[in-house]
Amino acid sequence: MEDVAEIAVSSGHRDDNVILDAVGPETFTFDELVRMIASQINSRARIVHVRPRVALFLANLIGYVVRDVVITRDEIDGLMSNLLVSEVETTAPTLFSEWLAQNADNIGVRYISGLERRYHG
User: Fold this and answer.
1) pLDDT lower than 50: segments of the chain
2) Which listed residue, of 17, 20, 81, 86, carries a Cα 20 to 30 Å from 32's Cα?
3) Would you put residue 32 in left (φ > 0), alpha (ψ -120 to 50) or beta?
4) Domain residue spans in the chain?
């Protein structure tokens, strides 16, 4: 988070319009990212690969139970289209893998609803 804040502050001092990617020095596939997080938080959850349509259906069921939107069709489409992959040079120096190792004890401790935070927080 500090990296993004620094990028925002330094960009705020510019006089021109600019679009910047907040990208760190590491790149992961979605599967690698999920497995790395699961390993760091000592999750015993099984990772199962399903078609995007099935994943969306299951996410909607979970979302109904937790009263939240877990993931949208547009987000799945973006992931499938590699829209989250940046081709620019690193703008944020923090290694996600190191940050994750340092913060693993705080990840997944409690569920925070994105909808609740957005509309009632």
Assistant:
1) none
2) 20
3) alpha
4) 1-27+87-106, 29-84
